[in-house]
Design goal:
The chain is an alpha/beta fold. Helix content is about 25%, strand content about 20%. The chain is built from four helices and seven strands. A five-stranded mixed sheet has the order 4-3-6-2-7. The chain has a two-stranded antiparallel sheet with strand order 1-5. A hairpin with a 5-residue loop joins strand 3 and strand 4.
């Protein structure tokens, strides 16, 4: 996978395999600000993919690399969620007011389908809120967000 907006904030997965897709909302007012942040080595934050409000897909970290998107998190007993996941973020304020656009939902479904072609049709999808309960609320706070749209 070539990256249209490469981030320096990633490293090797080591011997870990992709086991889950984690959905996020970036909490920024626009894609440009988010991309600038994740392209900065000082931020120490990245996603594999950012999906703009217009449905544009920005690739930032190759899927075979460990993007730094989940922070302190746990999924199925594994505390290195970054090492076992692919991080896909919606550009969205995650403020409880801004809903995801239809273009974002469709683009995310297409991205997830592509990831599943590469890593297995049964690859589960979860949220940042689910892997970091009490610490994060994205993208669950986006009005109309339904995890079932991506299952």
């Amino acid at each position: 996978m070539s990256c249209s907006h490469p981030s320096p904030n990633h490293n090797s997965r080591g011997n870990q395999s992709v086991q889950v897709i984690v959905l996020h909302a970036d909490a920024s007012p626009n894609e440009r600000g988010c991309l600038s942040w994740i392209q900065s080595s000082e931020s120490k934050v990245s996603y594999h993919v950012l999906i703009g409000r217009d449905g544009k897909v920005y690739t930032c970290v190759p899927y075979d690399r460990r993007a730094w998107h989940a922070g302190k998190a746990e999924w199925n007993g594994n505390k290195d969620v970054n090492g076992i996941s692919i991080g896909v973020s919606f550009s969205n304020r995650n403020d409880g007011v801004e809903a995801l656009t239809n273009a974002q939902i469709k683009a995310a479904q297409d991205v997830i389908a592509d990831i599943r072609k590469r890593y297995g049709a049964e690859l589960p999808v979860t949220t940042h809120a689910a892997v970091s309960p009490g610490r994060k609320s994205d993208p669950d706070k986006c009005p109309g967000f339904r995890l079932s749209d991506y299952a």
